[in-house]
Amino acid sequence: MAGALAGIRVIDFGQYVSGPMAAMLLADQGADVIRIDPPGGPRLEGPANATYNRGKRSIVLDLKSPGDFETARKLVASADVVIENFRPGTMDRLGLGAEAMTREHARLIYCSMPGFAATDPRAGIAAWEGTIAAATVTYPANAQTGRPTFTPLPFSSSYAAFLAAVSVAMALNARERDGLGQSIEIPLFDATFAAIGYRAQRIHNQSAEQDLRNLTRLMGGTRQFECKDGRWFMYHAGNKHASDFANQTGVSSLLSQGSTASLEELSRGLEALFKTRTAAEWEAFCEQVETEGAICRTSAEWLENEQALGSKIVVDSTDPVLGAFRGPGINVRMSETPGEVRRPRVLPDADRASILADAAKATAPSTAAAPEAIRTALDGVKVIDLCIVLAGPTCGRTLAEFGADVVRIDSPHRAAVAFHVDINRGKRSLLLDLKKPAGLDVFWRLVEDADVVVQNFRKGVAERLGIGYEAVRARKQDIVYASLNTYGRVGPWADRPGHEQIAQAATGMQERYGGNGRPTLAPFAVNDYGTGFMGAYGVALALLHRRNTGKGQHVDTSLAYTATMLQSLYLQDYAGKRWDEPRGLDLTGTGPLYRAYQASDGWFFLAARPGDLKGELSELASKSEAELEAAFAGGTVVDWVARLQAAGAGAHAVVQDFRALMEDPWAVARGLSITREHDGLGPVTHIAPSPKLSRTPAVPGRPTPQPGADAASILAGIGMLGDLDRLVEAGVIVTEGMAAR
How far apart are CA 432 and CA 720, in angstroms? Predict the structure, then answer.
């Protein structure tokens, strides 16, 4: 079966991580990706190229050479999509920029991923990953030392790639309807806001201290514990089987609802408990009682893990440079148009002859516009969102941002809707009991008009409720049905429950970030939000396929899949592999010219190669870290950042306060941070969509409604408004009173 993007041609000018990863995600789903490298090959050095350049054809072109430039123009003319991630203005100066190319080729979708936006005052600086991370609270202060905590994982680049894949798929949907392409800009700085998510949210009428206390009490015993064998284990108490765990281990008095035990007593009791068994024994026990727990593995262990291999998120291949190679597999799975790694990466210029032949006969795609006029990419698409917590609801929220009408269904039996303000904006809210026949009747009436159903129950739960994929498809043949969970739908761990913390533990992320001490969570819920975006990518691809064939399908992805891809810069195994990547909470960077330094009044990040520094500061390239520390301590952050930027470095102040980031005038003007009135909450500051599409923009949608507030309008839309009072009286629908947390 062909991939959902079969017949779509992508020209990949990308370098380093974000551009190549975005093009790889498109190649994985069937696109013909032509990778254009400069003389000398990819600018990224290392084995990650075996992942990022898989499934692509390769040609080397010197875009400053008239002949090669003309070849590039012909290839762009034949393309559906262009991907590039240079500094703003670079492709324009070469004559291949978004404005010129989309003007010449009306159906072209042109996606740019610079470090900072073209209109950002920082657009001209060298925007290394560390530069962006420093600007976006990705390097928080170490609680013990106060020093910024560096992470080598490229969250900003990865999120730009995720959002690029989503945006391109949405733009292709729009083009199918009206025949026109558009330009897309997803700066890495902007994309990082999508990873930050609820961490940056501020409910103005609630203090940060109150919010923190609520979260601390909510999590209870959710943290890492050292076990009998000295290994660390991640336990999560936030699920309905936590009581089974407590009862069978004898700590029910500490974990029970309404316990008077202090957090200190709870912590001490659980620490003693986990010392009684090995980490492997605790993992088996948690599986037995169907609660959440995972050994804090290393990344190397994840590559050998039965679930990683059984689910094929880790796969084996043969690389032309590395030989036998093990690395990340396909993130998004689709039942009718399954993705695949069609071939390993090839050496630069390996496909020159076939690509030149394509260029010689290249003709631009038809520019005839379809008759349909649209306002948004998913205008008219109806979605039922059955999800909880973060990953699944982020998928639904993303579909709403691109124009879908999303009905969010929550159980009326929960104490509160978690993260409601963050992940349910732009949706309509319904509190509906799906365990009652009358509740299922309402669900099936909604399905009659729906295009998409999204759920993130543990495997088997939707089926037990009678609303699994096969049951829904039996009633609606062309439904697009998305399932998101912790480990995926295949493999020996597919039935296990989990949250963000569990995925980070199982796949090596916690151990990598914590280093040789206690495993530690990454600064954001990167797997939850990333999985939501990958789910939206799969849904957009499935809608595109349905438009062309009339067929729906089942889409699935998982937190473990996303965690694997987020580590893809380092997550490879091959002969001679050394697991010596930078790691641990004491890191401030990876070398003298790529790390955080303390000035007289704060911290800044320096990112440069030895040859980048010009003028009077060129001598810094030869100094040791100790010498640089001494030199930088004598000036202010503002002074050093200005001087280093002028000298060609990617320097930036280390921002460590979310409120400062969200109140930054540029972020507010860009629309990354918005403040709006929310019913029952007052003013709330929160993030808004990062991608900027020229014709079908993503929008934040209306402020999040109170849980259950839209019951009347939702029932009216399916001809059941007259049943509302009866359903409320029977407890099938609840219209008010549930807390939003």
Answer: 14
pTM for the full predicted model: 0.96
Residue pair 341/317 in contact (Cβ under 8 Å)? The answer is: yes
Sorted by sequence, the CB contacts under 8 Å of residue 217 that are 6+ apart come out as 263
Q: How many angstroms separate the CA atoms of 266 and 259, rounded?
A: 10
> Tens digits of per-residue pLDDT, 181-203?
999 999 999 999 999 999 999 99
State the DSSP H helix or E strand holding residue 673, giving kind and residue range, or none if neither. Answer: strand 673-678
Partnered with residue 528 across adjacent β-strands are none
Closest CA to 85 of 107, 111, 66: 111
pLDDT at 665: 95
At 506, list the tokens.
């199982």
Which range has the worst mean pLDDT, 171-175, 213-217, 473-477? 213-217
Whether the CB-CB separation of 613 and 649 falls below 8 Å is answered with: yes
What's the half-sphere exposure (Cβ side, CA atoms, 13 Å) at 92?
9
Write the pLDDT tens digit of every residue in 3-22: 999 999 999 999 999 999 99
199 CA to centre of own chain: 15
**How do strand 594-599 and strand 602-607 relate by DSSP bridges?**
antiparallel
Average pLDDT of the residues in 592-611: 96
Specify whether the CB–CB gap between 177 and 548 falls below 8 A.
no
pLDDT of residue 595: 97
Q: Evaluate whether 488 touches 556 at the Cβ level (below 8 Å).
A: yes
* Per-residue confidence (pLDDT) for residue 364, from 0 to 100: 61
For the segment 678-730, what is each residue's pLDDT rounded down to a tens digit? 998 899 999 999 999 999 999 999 999 999 999 999 999 999 999 999 999 99
Tokens describing residue 520: 């530690």
Pairwise CA distance, residues 715 & 697, whole Å: 29
Q: Rounded mean pLDDT of the chain?
A: 93
Do 296 and 233 touch, CB atoms closer than 8 A?
A: yes
Burial 293-302 (b: 16+ CB within 10 A, else e): bbbbbbbeeb
Query: Pairing between strand 56-60 and 81-84?
Result: unpaired
Burial classification of residue 495, based on how many CB atoms lie within 10 Å of its CB (0-12 exposed, 13-18 middle, 19 or more buried)? middle
pLDDT higher than threshold 60 for residue 280: yes
Contact indicator for 48, 572 with CB cutoff of 8 Å: yes
8, with CB counted inside 10 A (0-12, 13-18, 19+), is buried
Evaluate whether 337 touches 30 at the Cβ level (below 8 Å): yes
Q: d(Cα 707, Cα 203) in Å, to the nearest integer?
A: 17
**DSSP code, position 422:** H
Cα–Cα distance list, 600 to 111, 133, 147, 604, 629 (Å) = 40, 21, 14, 11, 11
Buried b (16+ CB within 10 A) or exposed e, 344-358: bbbebbbbeeebeeb
pLDDT for 324 beyond 60: yes
In this structure, what DSSP letter does residue 722 have?
G
Q: Which candidate, 694, 597, 530, places its Cα nearest to that of 109?
A: 694
